[in-house]
Each structure stands twice: as structure tokens, then as C-alpha cells.
Write the C-alpha cells for this entry.
Amino acid sequence: MTDKFIVNIIHRPEMVPEYSATVTGHGKEEDIGDKKLLTESLDIFKTQQRIAHEYGLKTTIQMTYASLFNDEAVELAKADHEKYGDEISLSLLGLPCEEFRKKYKTKDFCIWMFSMEDKKSIVNDVFEKFYERFGFYPESTGSYYMDADLTNYIKATYPTVKCAVATCWEEGPKAYHTCNNSWYTLFDGGPWAPWIPSKQNTHAPAADETEDSGIVAIPHLSRDLIACYDGNGSNFGTHPQNVLRGMIYDSETWEYPYLYNLIDQYRSLEKYNNGYSYNMMFVGPGWMNKMGRWEAPYELLIKSYTEGCKYYGTLKDEGKLIDMTMSEFADYYRKKKTYAEPECALWRDILYGSDKQVFWYSDPYLRACVNMDQGGAIVDLRPYVAKLDWPVGIGTKHVQDASYPFLIQEKYRAGYFTHYAGEGTIRSAKLAYKGEEVDLCLCRTKAQFSQEDNTRILTLDPVSVEFQELTVSIQTKIYFEEGTSSIKIERSILEMSDPSASVELNEYIVACYGTTEYPEDMAGIVLRCEGENSKEIEYAYKCREAEQDNAIEVSAVVPNVNTKVSLTPSTNAKGYIREGYAFSPMFTLGYRKNMTNQEVFATWLNLEKAN
């Protein structure tokens, strides 16, 4: 198949939309069977379907449990399947209805938060009701998040399912805080683009057939990979009403160029992914009710959705886009991608007018973010290689928190440090000369992407470090070799104002673990400096250090996330390990090496499953 920009447009006839119920019924006692609410919800769904079809786009209709009890909704889905080729799918969102409340006696509506016993019962109820109404089982499903146990049960019980909406990118504490601390959907740390989830953990892509959960997962919304990471993702997505919620439009002209720029930046990702790029728009009816939403009137809601569909339709007419249903996309993805093939995104700021540029990388072994505004420092790192068993829901250790833990996360653990004590998590380097020290985090740069065989390479523009008596030009290259769970960082001294001088290069990683901004217990972590006289520190918050000339490896085993993280050098260098303390509960691994003009030194950041 010719590679083009792929789009999934997904609608769901939510009969009791999570937003509309409170708006339409404002001032009334709750009545989820309210006929006015049901009628308006169905009218919005019809409007969404009509708009997509007017611009030649087929959709995936994710029937909610509530909609399966509505004859008109069922007939609408059947009619649009016959006429337009829309896929009739099944959503695990939209559970609340009179029938559901009567049986489960709860107001919970997030499938991943239920006990495993209830998850199975709900899946059986919903899938069997779907079969009763349509005479077949669905090929796709989804929710805001689907945990591995849930996905594995669905695939085993209903093997027709091949595709699912399975996570919301960076929908963690940042989104929680901007919803008055009341939106308990915590799942940072997953991929931002389609992937094949492992059987062990939904967020961690499968490394091979034995780990394959049997489905292709897609994200709930395509997010802005800078604005969403830095702030609340719910304001920065290719869902048009996300853009309105973020107030990213001209209030007088009702124009929103950011929406088109965001779609176009997703189109551009084909440059980094072997000719493949993807986008999705997943819209429930609660966004387009007659009362308006997010300070936007109904007319603007309709306009933004219409013009969003029109843009996709125009791209399709120009031969630049293929609209697929979810199950069609799953088949395409399986043919297009290999297990080891990474997802890459060299992303630039298109919202605030800055020059900021980040690079995102994800494969079955790790997810990483490189920030060029911080000299090419790694500012987010998730050890997918551990394939963490992380049960979610009532009866588990993680009732709500489904996030994949980080080792580095600049938003929750400070990043390059600006306070008066302690350190934040980051992977960077420092240059020192005659008592002066400069961290490359302070040296903004830009990157170019290239690929050699199975290695993706970021080549950063050289930066100039100025000491009182010496100026050094240094260049960084970062190598992501497919299938290795390692990141190679190479520093080259290009030029020095005194060619006979020597500077000290300090390659380091400051790390910890966690899923939120609150510290975890670091007891049990073991730091090692391997060499002729190996040193070991068992973490006890005592601020201890150890070093070793010609160290073969410096490492930390973090048992609570079942991960070993290490640095290894290209040539002889002094390795060191450092324990943190209670006010700065991190650990540091590093190498120091004296560098002369034209010299090159590389280190590898390696991740392994601890056991």
C-alpha cells in the first residue's frame, strides 16, 4: 500500500455523555434516562456523522453500552455501515445507563478502575448485548485506558477484536491538576502514536510475537508533543474542541490556524517513520451540545468540527490522506510495522512562537524525550524493557494510577536544577575548566534527524561554551539503535581557543523512579561502580559517593520498577556513583574524562530488566 497520512475518525453515540448530563440537566435532580438528554445526544451523533460523510470520510462508530438499548442508535449505525462503509465498533466508554446502574450499583464509569471480576462481567454484558443487536462481535473497542489484564481477557474471550483505543497520551498529574484535582485518569508514560501493546503492560510495546497482546492500540486523541507535555494535554489535540477548550482561536474571527498546523505536524512525522504518519479524531457528543461548551457557543463548536473534517476531506481529495476504520488500520499497521521498529517524532513548538524543539523516541524497550532547549538532555525516560506487571483497578495496589513509571521526568522531578539544593532528574553533561563548570543544559541548540540502517541519529548543532580563559566548541550526536535498549551519546570537541588545553567532560544521569511529583522510597536501590576494585552503595539517604578509575560500568538496580540502568564508556574514564539524601532523593551515575582538542568520547545509557 502506498504510504500516505492515515486518519481514524471515531464517533460514539453516548446516550448519557459525561459532559452533557450536567449541562443539559443543570439545576435538576439527576436522571440518566432523561428523554431530552437522550434525544439531544443522538441528534449530535447524527450531526457528526453527517459532517464526516459530507467530506467523504468514513468513520468508526463505537457503540456505547447505553446506545445498545436504543433502537434508533442501532439502526443509524447499521444504515451508515451499509451506505458509507463505516465500521460498527464497541466502546467501553459510555457505560452509565439505567440498566448498568441497576446491575452494578455504582457511578463508576472507567472500565480499568473496576475490580477484575467486574471487568470480566462488564465485558461479557457489553459484548453479548452488541452481538444481540448486530449479529456479530466487534473488531475494535476502546476506552480512555485499557489495562493489560482487561485487554488479555477481551482478546481471549472475543478474538475478533484487533484494534483498541488504549491510552490517552500524558493524561496524568498535569491534567489532574487542571481539572480541580478531580479527574482521576492517571496514565502518563505511554506511546503517543499507534503501537502493539505487550501482554504484560499496555503502555510497553511488545518486543516479539510472544509478548503480543493480539491487538493494535491507538491513542485517545493525537496530542501536541510539546504543549501537552509541558501543560494540560486536554487543551492541545487534533480534536477541534480541544483547541477551543485551550482558547487557541481568534475570538473575533473564530479562526484556529493552530488546529491545521497541528494536523500538518503529524503529517510531517512520515519523515522520521519510514514514510508513515497517523492522526486520529475521537469525538463524543458531549462536546457539541446546544448549551455550548468551554466558553464557546454551539455555533463555534459546529464550525470547528465541520472545518476540521473539511481539512481532512481536502487532503483526501488531493491524494494525501487515507481515511481508515479502526479494524482497517490494524491490518495496515501489522503489514507496515515490525515489532522492533521505533516511533520517532522531531517536534517543534507551533503554539507559543518559540524555537523549542524536542525529539520523542519509543520502542519495545524504552521511551525517551530529548530537549534541544537543554542542549540535547534526556528529560523523560521510561524503562519499557522491564515490561512492568502493573494491575489497575479496585482490589489492586493501583486503583487509579495506571502510569508507566519514569526514571527521568523533568516536570515531576525538576529536570535541570534551579533551586538552592539538591538535583533534578536528567541525562546531560558538564564541562569544567580551571574551577569553572558549565552544564550543557544551559546551551540551547537544534537537531537534525537521519537514519542509517536500523539506527536513528540526532545530530545537534555545535554549541560554544565560554570559560574565562577558554572557549570550547562541542557537538553532540545521539544514536538510537533499534532493538538494543541503549542510547549512545557522543561528544566531539570540535575546536578550542587554546588547542593545547584540556577540559573535563562529566557525563551523568540523575534518576529516581515514580509516576507523580511525590517522592518514592529509594531504599532497596543498589548502586555499583564496576572495575578493578568494584564499589557498591545500598541506598540509605546518606549522601555517599564512590568512584573508580577505568570503570567498566556504573549502574543502579531499582527493584521497585524491576530495572537496571547503567552507563558504559567508549574508552577508559573515571566512573562514579552518588547516593542522594532525603531532600534530594535521587541517584547519580557518571563518567569523568579529560578531553583535548578534536577528541571524541561516547557513553551508552543502557536499560535492562533487573531480574
About this structure: The chain is about 20% helix and 30% strand. The mean pLDDT is 94.
